[in-house]
Each structure stands twice: as C-alpha cells, then as structure tokens.
Design brief:
Blueprint: H1 2-23, H2 27-52, H3 56-82
Length: 83
C-alpha cells in the first residue's frame, strides 16, 4: 500500500518538474528542472532496488546518476559560454 503512495508522490514530482522544463522562463530553469528530474529518477531506481531486493538496480542507479551529473555539467557549460 505504501508503495502506491510513494510512486504517486514520485509521479507528482516528475510532473511538476516536467511543467517547469516546458514552461521555464529561462534556460537555467530548464536545466535545473532536468537535474531535479534526474535526481528523482535515480531515487526511484534505488527504491525499486529496495522493493525487488536486487542489487543490480543499485549499479544502474549509480551509472544513471553519474551520466545525469555529466549532462548537467555539459548543459551548464554550454549556457555559460552562450551568455
């Protein structure tokens, strides 16, 4: 029962981040919302690893978090050079 509540709250968080990604007044807001979505997705993968009791999902979450961090750095550098 609590899994449904947690996944519902995760869905609401991703929904609001997606709204900010689409309607963000600036490019920096869009990058920030994309980073928040990546953090939420990484946490969701860790939660799924806990539910299924499978450590493979933790490895996937670590790789996803590293790639998401690199993505944020690349977008920030691009926006910094464009300004």
């Amino acid at each position: 029962m609590i899994n449904y509540i947690v996944f519902g709250l995760i869905g609401i968080g991703i929904f609001f981040s997606l709204i900010r990604l689409i309607k963000g007044p600036s490019s920096f807001d869009r990058v920030l919302s994309l980073d928040v979505m990546n953090i939420i997705i990484s946490g969701t993968i860790v939660f799924i690893a806990y539910i299924f009791n499978n450590e493979l999902y933790l490895d996937i979450a670590i790789v996803y978090a590293i790639l998401a961090f690199l993505e944020t750095v690349v977008f920030a550098r691009y926006l910094e050079g464009r300004s």
